[in-house]
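Ligand: pyridoxal-5'-phosphate. Inputs:
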Amino acid sequence: MSARTPGPRSRAEYRRAQRSLVGGVDSPVRAFTAVGGTPVVFARGRGPYLWDVDGRRYLDLVGSWGAALLGHAAPAVVRAANRAARHGLSFGAPSPYETDLAERIRHAVPGVERLRFVNSGTEAVMSAVRVARGFTGRAKVLKFDGGYHGHSDGLLARAGSGVATQSLADSAGVPASIVAETLVAPYNDLEAVRRTFEAHPESVAAVVVEPIAANMNLVLPAPGFLEGLSRLCRAHGALLIADEVITGFRLRRGAIYTKLGARADLVTFGKVIGGGLPIGAYGGRAEVMEVLAPLGPVYQAGTLSGNPVVMAAGIATLDALGPEVYRRLERNADALVGRWARAARDLGVERFQLSRVGSMIGVFFGPSPPRSYTEAGQVERPRYRRFFHAMLEAGVYLPPSPLETTFLSAAMAPRDLDEAVEAGARALRTVG
Ligand SMILES: *Cc1c(COP(=O)(O)O)cnc(C)c1O
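Predicted complex:
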């Protein structure tokens, strides 16, 4: 599909990978199924850049799916992880590192009185759902169409981007009996939520929601949606789980649901709080979280959970996140969106929608910015494909899927912004 990218070494590495790794990847979206062509294989990263195995440099607008908020190999984070590693990689026993990171999260998120660390966002949401079920004594969980909460069985129903681009409405290997406990409503549709509650009285343990939906392109909550959701949960005795695996500490120091009028009982984190290493966390009121063993009857454990290296990287990351970092991210993202939009207008490119929240950008080729998964489904895939490959040729790495979110890092300098704008303006000429 693309002429020059990737280079010969990337191609050879990807061929080699396919002989050992399923599909050559450890996570499906990396295989470029949604955009066609051969994945770029990367050798290293620094600041806002990645270099592939052919030595070619890319401005990275994926940032490990949002995890690399400070950019790649941020010196303070690498130093902290190195320092911790010299004293042991994992104890499988308590260490002060865990409490240090937990205190930072607790102080930044008012609703979190107790939390627990795990090793991925998937584990965090899966465990939060288990806590909600243990606390309420109910079985059902309500999620939204196109909401992604990791790949645990019960949450893989209608789960957005990665699953959607593989054209799987669901996943094989998930028993119908498990998905039967999952209820699905359209995002931004309070009336549907109300009807669902009424159809399943006293059986919904939790509603799990991305306060800003970032796995079906970028979909903002309609005014009143999250407030209404909080109200309905309360009225029906269900817990509200805010899945902030993407949004937590990316948009502000803490969670975003508190700023959007929601009252969540449990909140999940991942991505940014590990500074680029594998992590997840979930927390909430002490009364709720204390159903967990060793205090309560809900079991959840992890051999490597809270290990010092990840905790140290997370602490160093959070310690770098002052208001000026978020202001810079906001300024850069706002400028990028404004200049891309102007380029599109000048070129007469139609049905090109940009949405933005902080440093998260939705690049959407379609009739209007999506408000639900159904609307996200109207994306004009061939146009995104052309845009993606033109950007890749120009050395800008975008998400290899039209339904993912684009992320800026705090490491971007003004010249990087110019580079992204100019590449975008050239790429827009090719999309039709
Ligand atoms: C990425 C993501 C997850 C899953 O996290 P992993 O670390 O990939 O398991 C869960 N929820 C949301 C909202 C996410 O974006």
